[in-house]
Design brief:
With 128 residues, this protein is mainly β. Helices cover 0% and strands 48% of the residues. The chain has strands at residues 3-7, 10-13, 18-25, 33-39, 46-51, 58-60, 68-73, 78-83, 92-99, 117-118, 122-127.
């Protein structure tokens, strides 16, 4: 059974940093695109970042560009989200997801429907 498990969330002051991790178990994700989304209370789940299978290409939402960095370690079946210069509006539950059917000739997936499997989420709270 394939599973994604996020960790690393918590409470941080504005301007601080957090590093989220997402470990895949049950199946390798080394040839898949992976992404991070977030959902704030009362809002839709929104795209944050995506990464190509080899880490050679990344894509970010405008709201996090220059502050967040997505990376992956295929040997550990893990994807990371380094979040710097955090703002109160970054407060949300953060989810990782995998697109098993992604093709290297395609743009990186940024829509929820493009992803096949989701983690349970990890809470990030940024205080002002």
């Amino acid at each position: 059974q394939v599973q994604l498990t996020e960790s690393g969330g918590g409470l941080v002051q504005a301007g601080g940093s957090l590093r989220l991790s997402c470990v895949a178990s049950g199946r390798t994700v080394s040839s898949s695109a992976m992404g991070w989304f977030r959902q704030a209370p009362g809002k839709e789940r929104e795209f944050v970042a995506a990464i190509r299978w080899d880490g050679g290409r990344t894509y970010y939402a405008d709201s996090v560009k220059g502050r967040f960095t997505i990376s992956r370690d295929n040997a550990k079946n893990t994807v990371y989200l380094q979040m710097d210069s955090l703002k109160p509006e970054d407060t949300a539950v953060y989810y990782c997801a995998v697109d098993f059917t992604w093709s290297s000739s395609s743009r990186l997936p940024s829509q929820r429907y493009e992803y096949d499997l989701w983690g349970q989420g990890t809470q990030v709270t940024v205080s002002s």
